[in-house]
Amino acid sequence: MEHNIYDDPEFLAGYTTLSRQVDGLAGAAEWPAMRAMVSDVASQRVADLGCGFGWFSRWAVEQGAGAVVGIDGSISMLNRARAQTKAGDVEYRCVDLNFLDLGPQTLDLVFSSLTLHYVLDLSALFLTIANALVDGGRIVFSVEHPIYSAPSSQNFETSVSGKRIWPLENYLEEGERVTTWFVDGVVKQHRTIATYVNALIRSGLVIDQIDEWGPTADEVAARPELVDDRHRPWFLLVAATRMR
Amino acid sequence: MEHNIYDDPEFLAGYTTLSRQVDGLAGAAEWPAMRAMVSDVASQRVADLGCGFGWFSRWAVEQGAGAVVGIDGSISMLNRARAQTKAGDVEYRCVDLNFLDLGPQTLDLVFSSLTLHYVLDLSALFLTIANALVDGGRIVFSVEHPIYSAPSSQNFETSVSGKRIWPLENYLEEGERVTTWFVDGVVKQHRTIATYVNALIRSGLVIDQIDEWGPTADEVAARPELVDDRHRPWFLLVAATRMR
């Protein structure tokens, strides 16, 4: 397996300070939108791809999921996930998602939070997932929004007319983006919305909903520091259903 | 009916000089992608919403469509469309798309090129279209890409680091955008990709494909003046199928 950035001690030390890692799902601004997409997981067989510290996996157990598998490529993440999870509640597996193997028609729900933008061959992974989902099974995932991941600089600038602007460039140039996030050299894969949506459809899934997630105007009124996230969405959320 | 900008003589004089109006479909860079989405129209009952000078309507007739209705809110456009169309080939109707009425289950294909960003109530129009399509009937449309329509300035700028950037702002602020295009005061409705996609799904359609259209790298190599359209897509193309 390739080196996983989440096993880098310096990266992990920074990452652990994020509110979504300190407070779990409640610290993730987009969680209410994702939770609505996930809906009822009672009795469902769930896989959590890129489970990290296991926040969603444990939530699914609390909601009465029939079986939960948490999968991540970072052994450091999984060690902490295991330490925080009651024995037997979640089956954690250390697997690089570029080489994921899932049994056929064994899952009702595949969940993935902010992970698929690390995967190299998205079509291959979607086919693996489509093969693993039962008829009517669902995938709900989030990734960094392509508008966010496209430019080489992820900082707002001031336009020639004095406006606060997001310096978009190279939106249609898919592929590797190397950014600094706690450490230098964090590699993500930039893809367009069309690529995510069309790859799902080609895998045999039907799109239920997409959400170009940013705070609502009301949320910005309550938390003015979020105003930039109205200029360019932060995350792309997608829900789709397997149809056989 | 409200004043239609396409009936403004100064606007129309400028608009008529566009290559897609001089050369028709062959002058529209995105036409090959849309044509692939449209696929076979032989024997199909087709409506062309925002038909303009009737280029697509006549193409559909040439391809053997069973019946073609061209609908536009501009009488100036329709007068020229009628003058260029063999009598009886296309039924042209002057209708504001905000007040469109179509019979139930009377159409196999609804086509619309660069028109829906003028419509005020998109959900109402999609419901009208969904009601008009037979089971398995399709919609194929293009609109200005939301990345293109969002900012107040539609001109590239130079970033602080010297890069050519698209000054994105207010992507999530949907609603009216007033631009200068041949004349001042051209009003379009900015919507996110999610809004287009989710409104279709809620109307009972299944998404087949989306295309955030820009030239390919090969096309830019052949026509270097298109390079900016790799930085931000120009059009959003969507194909969806009515499922009853």
- Strand tally of chain A is 11
Estimate the helix proportion of chain A, in percent. Answer: 25-40%
Instruction: Name the CATH class of chain A.
Output: Alpha Beta
The chain pair forming the largest interface, with residue counts per chain, is:
A-B, 38 and 38 residues
Question: What is the typical, i.e. mean, pLDDT of chain A?
Answer: 95
Figure out the total of helices of chain A.
10
Quickly list its features:
homodimer, about 240 residues, alpha/beta, Rossmann fold, two-stranded antiparallel sheet, 10 helices, 11 strands, globular
Description:
2 copies of one chain form a homodimer. Chain A has helices spanning 9-15, 19-22, 31-38, 55-62, 75-84, 122-132, 146-149, 193-202, 217-222, 228-231, and strands spanning 45-49, 67-72, 91-94, 107-113, 133-144, 157-158, 164-168, 175-181, 183-190, 205-213, 235-242. Chain A is α/β, with parallel strands linked by helices and 244 residues long. The first copy, chain A, has a single domain (5-242), classed as Rossmann fold (3-Layer(aba) Sandwich). In chain A, the strands form 3 sheets. Chain A has a 7-stranded mixed sheet, sandwiched between helices. In chain A, β4 (107-113), α6 and β5 (133-144) form a beta-alpha-beta unit. The radius of gyration of chain A is 18 Å and the shape is globular. The first copy, chain A, starts with 8 loop residues before the first helix and ends with a strand. The A-B interface holds A 147, 151-153, 157, 159-161, 163-173, 192-194, 197-198, 201, 206-212, 214, 229-233 and B 147, 151-153, 157, 159-161, 163-173, 192-194, 197-198, 201, 206-212, 214, 229-233. β7 (164-168) of chain A pairs antiparallel with β7 (164-168) of chain B, so a sheet runs across the interface.
